Structures are given as C-alpha cells and as structure tokens.
Amino acid sequence: MAKNENKKELQSVKGMRDMMGDQYYALQGFFEKAQEICEYYGLQPIETPTLEQEDVFLKGVGEGTDIAEKELYSLKTKGRDKLAMRPETTAGIMRAYIEHGMHSKPQPVMFYTYGPVYRHDKPQRGRYRQFWQFGVEILGSTKTISDVMAIHLADLILKESGIKDITLKINSLGDSDSRKEYVKTLTAYYRKHVNKMGATDRQRMKTNPLRILDSKDEKVIEINKEAPQSISSLNTLSKKHFKEVLEHLDQLGIEYEIDHKLVRGLDYYSHTVFEFFTTPDKNEEGEELKPLALGGGGRYDYLAKIMGGKRDVPAVGFAFGVDRIIEATTKEIKPKVKKKPKVYFIQLGQEAKLKSLAIIEELRNAKIPVSHSLSKDGLSQQLAIAEKLGVTQVLIFGHKEALEGSVIVRTMKTRSQKTVAIDKLADYLKKTK
After folding, report:
1. Is 167 within 8 Å of 279 (Cβ atoms)?
2. Per CATH, the architecture of 10-175+235-328 is what?
3. CATH 3.40.50.800 domain residues, the chain
4. 90-99 and 54-61 are packed helices; what angle lies between their axes, rounded to 10 degrees?
5. How far apart (Å, rounded) are the C-alpha atoms in residues 363 and 425?
6. What are phi and psi of 171, to 5 degrees?
7. 343-431 has which fold?
8. Which listed residue, of 95, 97, 230, 400, carries a Cα 20 to 30 Å from 387's Cα?
9. Predicted confidence (pLDDT) per residue in 215-244, tens digit
C-alpha cells in the first residue's frame, strides 16, 4: 500500500490551479487596466503579506463569519505563532495603516491592491480556493465623496474590462448606533420564526443575525421577505450620509437598486454597503440564469478599533473577484506586454546559434517581438513551426550569414526573400510591416 501511495501522481491542491497562457495574460491585462484607472485618480499601490497573524482576520472579519469559522487557512509555525493566509485584503491594509502611523499623512490615504487570496470554500462557478482579487481602500475620510469614489472606480473598472450589463445594488447599515438598533430589531423579528429555522440560522441569531438575510434555506428566504429593513433603523446622521451618496450617484449617472437585504456579512461594515452583479441573462431554454456576483464593498469606520487601534479610522473600499470578471467579460483582455510576434527567427548551425541571442536582443531593443525555436536545428522543422504560428516574415540565419553579418528575410505569403545586414535589420523590418 505504501508503494502505491509513493507512485500516486502529484496534482495541484483542490480548488487551486496552474495559471499559464491566455489565463495568465487575462489576469495581467485586467490588472493593467484597473491599475491605470486608479493611478489617474491618485491612488497608490500597496502589497501586504500573504501571511498575517491570525488575529488580523479573526478580529477584522468577525469570528461569527464563514471566513473565520470555515474558510480560513490557518497554520502554526515552529515558533508556535498562529498565522493565516489572507482571505481578503482590507484587514491587512488596515493593519499596515496602523502599524506605519499613516494617520500622520495627509488624509485620505488611497490605495489599490492586487494579488491572490485564499479561502477553504467549496469550489464553484468562478470561485477557487486560491483566487485573485483587485481592491481599493480609501482610509481617513468620513466624507460621502469617498464612498462615491469607490463605487465610481469599481463601475469604471468593470465597464472598461468589457462588462457592460451590470447591476449595482446598494444599502446602508448606518453608524454603530443605527446598526445596533437594526440588529436588535432584526433579532426580535427572527425570534418569532425561530421554530422554522435550521440549525445554521439559529446559530447565526447568536453570532451575526445580519447573515440570516443571506440565508439559502427556502423557509428562511420566505421569512426574510417580511424582515425589517436596515433603512428604518437609520438615525438622522446616517440618513443624511446615505442620501448624499445616492445624490452623487445620480449626478454621475450610475444606476443602482436599493437592496434592503444587502448587508455584507463581515463585522466591520457600517453606513454604505454595495455589490456589483452581472445583469440576469437567460439560457437557451429561456430560463433566467442566476446573476454572478462580481464583487463589492462598503464603509468600515470602526475596523481600526476592532483590530486594537487607538482611534477610529473612517474608511471605505471594495474588492473584485478577478476570475469572475474575466469569465463574464465580453472582450479579450490583453496586457500591454503581450505582443503577437509577426517574425520567426530560424538559425542553422553552431556558428549561427552562438550569435542568435545577440540578434534577438537587438530586435527587442527595437521593440520587435520574435518567435523562435533555438533548440531546433533543421530548416524544414523550424519553417513548419513558423507556418503554424502564422507569422508574416521569417529570418533565416545560417553559417554563411553568421560569417557575413547578414540575415535572410523571407516573406511567407510571396516566398520572396532578401539578404539584409544585421545592423540594418530592425529598420528594414519596421518598414516592411
């Protein structure tokens, strides 16, 4: 049995996968587009560690959440430190804000971040256990313009990534007093229906009643239809905040739906919460498909103190699941670095092989991408690869050309060819594109 185990083929971990080819380039292309938008709006990049102290997330996202209870990848080091792989990036960025004394900088401090996050969740459509997130965090401002900027940036990034049919859902939880009042009202309502609830939702009544609003239990979905709305618990200041956010969105022409069941289950949210979905479509049988959640966020004015900070840090942000965006987009997302070569370099003989990389480097400096198979030796073999790639020109560099300092340029369509000096090659190729 031990022998069979040793022979077992090694595979990637369930819910994680290797990224290569078009998948890799699509992720890179999305990041370049999102980064460009954020840079124009004055945001700066930040990269926090993949590994953090476990408490960063337990305190940040809340101990009654799915992330903390079921999805967190935790580990204990040889020094017995309790660490966790980041399930999201907001808590880590707030930790960095506090640790580096960023409150002394001009406020707000505005960041964008991109990278893999990890959740031990059941793999499903567009969701993996290691997946890529792009996020924006605006820290140090209570002003509603910060809420609106976050939503505006999210809307721009989605639309410029080729997702035109999107639905923005928005709600408000209000400040801490409003949220407490709402939780109290909601819990009282659920107590009347507790006998109809399953064990999971009954437990949520004790740990995080807001999460019952997102229950998948059919009986609870019916109960939620008559559940109290968070807006009814907003105090005067919270109503004013939400009204201003909606007025800004109207001014920008960003369409939205107020969704009274949208609360974003993490403990740190307050005031504005929002989420972007694909607009529901229909399959071939005419049945309406379930909209795909692309990402969302909201305001989190009390996270800093929850994490042990000395003062509240008003903040707002969002995060996108990039894999889902790439799945939903209507256009190919290409990074700037990806250039489809129109030239294929063929070398013949040891003398030519020795000088090949120097020629390719000259062409790189001239911004001319080249395909090649330097490990191949035969002319017919290399020409066959060039044909398959569909290049327009082939460079043939043999023993004679290596001695003379020249290259044969063959046009694939006409089969005509010309001998060109190496120092004139880049200019010649640019003229004959």
Report:
1. yes
2. 2-Layer Sandwich (3.30)
3. 343-431
4. 110
5. 8
6. -155, 175
7. Rossmann fold (3.40.50)
8. 400
9. 888 999 999 999 999 999 999 999 999 999
